[in-house]
Amino acid sequence: MLRDRALEKKLIVLQTLASIRSGELCSYAELARRSGYPGSARHIARLLHNCPDHLPWWRIIRADQRLGLNEHSSEGRLQCERLQQEGWHLHCGKLIHD
Questions:
Q1: Using alpha carbons only, how large is the chain's radius of gyration in Å?
Q2: What is the pLDDT along the chain (98 residues), one digit of tens a residue?
Q3: What H or E segment, with its residue span, contains residue 23?
Q4: Dist. CA 91–CA 73, nearest whole Å
Q5: Helix (H, G, I), strand (E, B) or coil at 95
Q6: What's the CATH code, domain 2-97?
Q7: How far apart are CA 91 and CA 64, in angstroms?
Q8: CB–CB of 63/27 below 8 Å?
Q9: For the chain, which residues make up each domain, given as ranges?
């Protein structure tokens, strides 16, 4: 039963993630809220760590407009590249739209 609820929560979050359009950013907390799980931002971050690559995980950032990943890590560089393709760039550590 608990496992079923966890799977259901994961599927809802991934469906919500899939609905985030190109060029749109969303914080971990906002994704949790949109998914119906306010206050679960840390859980969202853990879930996205193993997210299928075809879902737009790179559009999820911190509430302060910074990357949730280290921008110098391979994953952080990939997130930056994908966001740049959508019109975003880092300025003083924060994301700015072109």
A1: 13
A2: 678 888 999 999 999 999 999 999 999 999 999 999 999 999 999 999 989 999 999 999 999 999 999 999 999 999 999 999 999 999 999 999 98
A3: none
A4: 17
A5: strand
A6: 1.10.10.10
A7: 13
A8: yes
A9: 2-97
